[in-house]
Amino acid sequence: MGHPFLETSVVRPRVSAPAPRLGGMTIQRMDHVGVVVDDLEAAIAFFTELGMEVEGRASVEGRWVDGVVGLDGVRGDIAMMRTPDGHGRIELTRFHSPEAVAAEPGNAPANTLGLRRIMFAVDDIEDVLVRLRAHGAELVGELARYEDAYRLCYVRGPEGVIIALAERIG
Predict the structure, then answer these.
(1) pTM, whole model, 2 decimals?
(2) Which domain holds residue 52?
(3) β-strand 144-146 against 75-82: which pairing, if any?
(4) What is the rounded distance in angstroms from the CA atom of residue 136 to the CA atom of residue 92?
(5) Residue 109: inside a domain, yes or no?
(6) Which of 144, 149, 147, 152 is nearest to 170 (CA)?
(7) 93 and 122 belong to one structural domain
(8) What's the mean pLDDT when you consider all of the chain?
């Protein structure tokens, strides 16, 4: 038997046909995005307010995790968050050892190289903004309208991650 958290966090693809193969490689799905945080409880509260659900929590340590992440002496806590439709997930990780390090400024602009934002479709963007502001979120720019199709904005979430919100209006 493997690690119980990993077994319960696997989402089975809902595809009836096999995935196409390109050069012998197959991607079944994008499983999750990982976000390293300093305050795991605050990050869980933020993403719960956004509408995500805690799928599972676990403490991780040992040779297997050291080998996977390429660090020695890893000890941490993780929480897997799931979108309401069950298709999107975020793994929140709090490292106890080794301590997490900042790779860039906490308020890196939207054009900084690398993973920059996570976008969520929402029903009522203004309601979501009010609720996320109670958890420290701040608008990066402004709430804008894209043609007659969307209302969009970026907010700064846990550890400076940009959370993009999109409300379909057309």
Answers:
(1) 0.81
(2) 31-101
(3) unpaired
(4) 17
(5) no
(6) 149
(7) no
(8) 86
**46 in helix, strand or coil?**
helix
119, 129 in Cβ contact below 8 A? no
First vs last C-alpha separation in the chain: 49
Q: Which two tokens stand for residue 28?
A: 């079944």
Residue 2 lies in a domain: no
Alpha helices in 103-169 (DSSP H): 125-133
Supply the DSSP string of 64-121, one letter for each residue.
HHHHHHT-SS-EEEEEEEE-TTSS-EEEEEEEEESPP---S-TT--TTSSS--EEEEE
Give the percent of the chain with pLDDT over 90. Answer: 69
Alpha carbon of residue 91 to chain centroid: 6
Same domain, residue pair 122 and 96 = no
d(CA 136, CA 39): 13
Query: From the CB of residue 108, how many other CB atoms can be counted at a distance below 10 Å?
Result: 16
Per-residue tokens: 74:
């890893």
Cβ atoms of 156 and 164 closer than 8 Å: no
Tokens 């499983």: give the residue.
31
Tell me the per-residue pLDDT of 52-92, one tens digit each, with 9 for 90 and over.
999 999 999 999 999 999 999 999 999 999 999 999 999 99
Instruction: Write the DSSP symbol of residue 26.
Output: -
As to burial, measured by CB atoms within 10 angstroms (0-12 exposed, 13-18 middle, 19+ buried), residue 21 is exposed
Q: Can you tell me the distance from the alpha carbon of 35 to that of 163, in angstroms, rounded to the nearest whole number? A: 12
